[in-house]
Sequence to fold (645 residues):
Amino acid sequence: MAKETKKVQFGMREFKAVGRTFEINGRPVFLRGTVNNCEFPLTGYPSMDVAAWVRIFKISKAHGLNHMRFHSFCPPEAAFIAADQVGFYLQPEGPSWANHGTSIGDGKPIDQFIYDETNRMTKNYGNYASFCMMAYGNEPRGRQVEYLTKFNNYWKAKDSRRLYTGASVGGSWPVIPNNEYMVRAGARGLDWGRKPESISTYAKQIEQFTVPFVAHEMGQYCAFPNFDEIKKYTGVYRAKNFEMFQEDLKDHDMADQGHDFLMASGKLQALCYKNEIEKALRTPNYNGYQLLSLNDYPGQGTALVGVLDAFWDEKGYITAKEFKRFSNSTVPLLKVSKFVFTNNETLEAAVEVAHFGKAPIENAKLLWTLKDESGTNVAKGNFSPKTLNITNCIAIGEIKFPLSGITKATKLKLEVTIDGTEFANDWDFWVYPEKLPQVKSNVYYCTSLDDKAKAVLTGGGNVFLNAAGKVVKGKEVVQTFLPVFWNTSWFKMRPPHTLGILCDPKHGAFNNFPTDYHSDMQWWEIVNKSQVMNLEDFPSGFKPIIQPIDTWFLNRRLALIFEAKVGKGKLVVSSANLSPDVKDAPAAQQLYFSLQQYMMSDQFNPKYEVAFNTVKDIFESPSKIQFDTFTKDSPDELKPKPKSN
Fold:
C-alpha cells in the first residue's frame, strides 16, 4: 500500500492577552499596524504570489510596522506564508461588512456563512504563526451584541491558537463584552481645534476596557492626488478618477500646481500621522493602532490617505526611514505644551521612551541636541543611563532651555537619540521676539475696502486689508489646520475641505517669518478656522502669497493672503486675522510684522493687476458654483438597499 505524505508549514508561538497587554511568547508587544483594503490596481484581486506579499510586508516593516488587519476579507495563503517569513502579526476577517443592505443576528443566510467561512479560514491557514487574531469583519448592523458574543464563545472554545474580537468598529458601535481584545475608534484623532501640544493621551477613552486596546482605522488624513501615478495603471483598471481631477484642476487654471499641491499636502499629512502615532505611544495601557492606512485606497470616492500610493510606492514627501523614526519598536517621545514660543520664555520638555523591542536595553544613554536651520548647535545635553524595560511611558528626564539668547524669528529642531542605536526622533519649534520694533509705516491698515482704502490705492499708496470674518466669496469653504478626512465625496463635503497651505518660502513676504513651503505647527494659529477667499474671477495665472489647497473634487483657486496692483497702488489682503493688535498669537504677530516690512521694501512689486471691484466682490458676492451636500446621515453606500419584488 502506497504511503501518502503531506507537507505542512506551521509555526510555534504563543500570542495571548495578559490583562490589558498583548504578549508574544511571554514578552509584551505593541501592534503597529495598517489596514489592508484589498487594493490591487493591476489585477483587481489579491496576489496569489508569495513574493508580492513579501514585498508588501517588507515595505510595511521598513515603515516600522509589525501588524496588518484585512478589512472584511481573508487574504490568500501566499500572504500567510509571506507574513511568517517576514515576521508580521495578521488579523484576517470573515469576508463581510454586514452593513450594506444586510445585517447579522437577524436569521439571514449571512449568519451561517460567517461561521462556514471562518471555519474554512482556520482549517486552511490556522497553522500559520502570523495568523494571530480574527474578527467576524467590519462595523455591522443587526443584533450584533448577541451574535458576536456567541461568535467569540464558539471560537474561544474551538481554537485557542489566536485571539478573537467580535468586530472591528468605530466608536459608536456597542462593546462586545467577551472580546479578547478591542479594535475600536474613540481613542484616536488629534484635537487640533486647540493649540497643538504633545502631552495629552488617550488614557481616558480606554480606561473602561480590561483587555488590550487597538485603535481602529487611525489617521485617514488626505493628501492631494499624485497625477504621475496615472501611468502606473497598466492592468485591468484605468485611473479615470485621477484623470478627471487633473482635468478639473486645469479648468481652474492650476494645472501647473498639481505636484506642489501633492508635496505640500503630503507634508501636512505626515505631520498629522506623526503626532497621532506619538500620542498613542505615550498613552498608558494602549496596545496598538491600525492605520487607515499606510497606502492609498482608490475606492469610496478616492481616499488618498496613505503616505504610499495604491502600488505601495513612496510619493516623495516622506521616506520609510523618516516615518520609522516615530513608528518603531522603540521611539523617543517628547512631552511639550506647545511648539511656538517667544524669547522671554523657556523651552521646557519631558523626554520619554516607548520600548517594545525583543529585550530590555541595558543602561541606555539618551542624548539631545537643539539646532537652528543652518545645522548649528544651539544647545545639547544627555541624561543619566537608564535600563529601558519593555513598556511605554518610560520617563527619562527634563530639558530646560531659556530662549532669551534668540533675538530674531528662528526655527529650531530638537532631536533625541538613544546612543549606539538607530532609534531617534525630532520635533520642530519656532521662537519669536516677544517685542518687535515699532516701525513707522506708510501702509494704510483697514478691515474693509472703504473709501479711504480706495483713495489711497487710487493715489498710488499701499493698503493692507485684514479681511478676517468678512469673506463672502469662499465662505462655504471650511478650513481648519487638519486636512480632509478620508475624502469629501464619500462624506458629502464634511468639513474641513482643505489640505493645508502652499507658499514660496523665498517670497519677500517671509523675510522675517521662517517657513517651509507647507503647513507646519507655527501656522496653526494663523490658519486654523480662518476663512479663505475664492479667486474665481482673478486673472489667469494669478497665484496668492499663501494658497490653501482645496479638496481635489472642486479645485477652487483659494487664497489666505494675496497681493495685487490695484489702481496706481499696491494691496495686500489677508483673510487670516493679522493686525497690529493681535494678542497671544506670536506667529500671527510675526507674520504681520514680516508683511509690513515687505510692503515698505523695494521687493514689494505685485506681479498682477486686479480691478478694485474684483477684489471688493470677494466681500460682497458668493461663489458662482457652490456644492454643499453635507449631512450627518451615513454615506449612501452604507444604507440598506430597497428590497426588489
Notes: Residues 64 and 328 are 4 Å apart (CA to CA). The first helix runs from residue 50 to 62. The first strand starts at residue 15 and ends at 18. The chain has a mean pLDDT of 96.
